[in-house]
Amino acid sequence: MSQTSASAASLGFLSCHSCGLLSQSPPHSHGLRCPRCDAALHARKPDSISRSWAFLIAAMISYIPANLLPMMMTSTLFGTESDTIMSGVVYFWTSGSWYLALIIFTASILVPMLKMIALMLLLVTTQLRLRWQPGQRAKLYRLVEIVGKWSMLDVYVVAIMVALVQLKGLATILPGPGAIAFGSVVVLTMFSAMAFDPRLIWDPVEENAKND
Amino acid sequence: MNSQPLIACHECDLLQHEVALPEGGVAHCPRCGAELYRSHPESLERTLALTAGAIILFVIANSFPIIGIKLSGHEIQTSLFHSVRLLYDDGMTSVAALVMVTTIIMPALQLLTMIYLLLPLRMGQVPPHCALVFRTLHGVQPWAMVEVLMLGVLVSLVKLAGLAHVVPGIALWSFGALMLVMAAIAATFDPRALWLKMAATQ
Fold first, then answer.
1. What pLDDT, in 10s, does the model give residues A75-108?
2. How many CB atoms lie within 10 A of CB B124?
3. Looking at the structure, do residues B79 and B58 belong to the same domain, yes or no?
4. Are B56 and B35 contained in the same domain?
5. Are residues B11 and B49 in the same domain?
6. Smallest Cβ distance to B148: which of A18, A150, A163?
7. Chain A: closest CA distance from residue B153 (Å)
8. Cβ under 8 Å to A: B residues 35-64
9. What is the pTM assigned to this prediction?
10. Which of residues 97-156 of B touch A (CB under 8 A)?
11. Rounded to an integer, what is the distance from CA B27 to the centroid of its chain?
12. Are B58 and B120 part of one and the same domain?
């Protein structure tokens, strides 16, 4: 593949976030729009790092109640029981459905946690303009974008259980406040990943190559 | 001098010349490895056909119950919208909204914007406001989560199977099929082909 070794932005081109069209940018211009799809054009997403941090910190805070508060409250003839995410995992593990325990543990506990750690790593290294392993960090960002939505799993399980287990006098399931916190974690981490601009990973790499 | 058009990688912004691809080929960025574009034979025709099918499946999936349970004479069924309604009635407005947006509104918007762009183009016309509709489609895509819902339904199915007799509903199968067709749409739709066709039609 024939290539230059410079980014479009450093050569005065802007690439559209939405449709990918490359346009030439007049110097010192603001409020440009893509001539093809009319999306706002920026060389890099505006305030990418601080916006991404803001969403990430909010997600980290919500992660605590998401794990401590009950997702569902089951009331039967014998009393009321509250289920957190972890107690659901334990229930499946002890009742023999270890594969379900594994799916829920991965989607609801592991993925959100790893996703937040990954975003933190990307943000810190990018903010410090480190030139460390840009290729691996780009891969990490791609992974974060792909796995993000699978954490919604538990929210859907709550929605369906609540709708079905409505047996008056026998058993009813009510949604718990943990579901709100958990939904927030998923949405906030998705916003954080969307606000992050992976092109910032490569800018210091390129500057360094220019100076050599 | 290379006469191929220039393109910037959407992930690392590396400026490079496009290359012609063999059928089914994929172009990756030489610096960061992101997928730049791929060759989709008859992308727009296939996507249109798949979208028409997906709309039918979507309507069926949202009109019938997903699963039901039978327990000591009681029988309860739920459709997706019914479960959203119950969450709302239980005071979980934000969770109800989240489920409604990610499983009903966003997939519906994705399918409608897709057909709005592709159907008139097939007939040789460029639909009005196509730039706005394209940007909507682009923004909606990450929020449509039919495949995650499907996994959630399966997990609840196993969870309930221990408590009661579980009856899979028509919508369960339709959601399963919808999930596959939407994955096929994501794999065949080529936005580059769409813009080329629009430029050629205008």
1. 888 888 898 999 989 988 998 888 889 988 998 8
2. 8
3. yes
4. no
5. no
6. A150
7. 6
8. none
9. 0.91
10. 98-99, 102-103, 131-132, 134-135, 138-139, 142, 145, 148-149, 151-153, 155-156
11. 23
12. yes
As a residue count, chain B comes to 202
**3-class DSSP state of B66:** coil
pLDDT in tens, A20-60: 898 887 776 778 899 899 998 888 899 999 999 999 999 99
Residue with tokens 């579980």: B166
Collect all residues with Cβ–Cβ distance below 8 Å to B118 and sequence separation of at least 6. B44, B47, B48, B51, B194
For residue B36, give the 3-state DSSP assignment.
strand
B155 and B55: one domain?
yes
User: Into how many domains does chain B fold?
Assistant: 2
Map tokens 């110097």 to a residue: A27
On whether both B130 and B144 belong to a single domain, the answer is yes
Contacts of B172 (CB under 8 A, 6+ apart): B66, B67, B153
Are residue B54 and residue B151 in the same domain, yes or no?
A: yes
Tokens of B94: 């934000």
For residue B159, what are its two tokens?
């969870």
ipTM: 0.91
Residue B66 shares a structural domain with residue B107:
yes
Sorted by where each starts, the structural domains of chain A and their CATH numbers stand as: 1-43 (no CATH), 46-211 (1.20.140)
Which residue segment(s) compose the domain that B153 sits in? Answer: 43-201
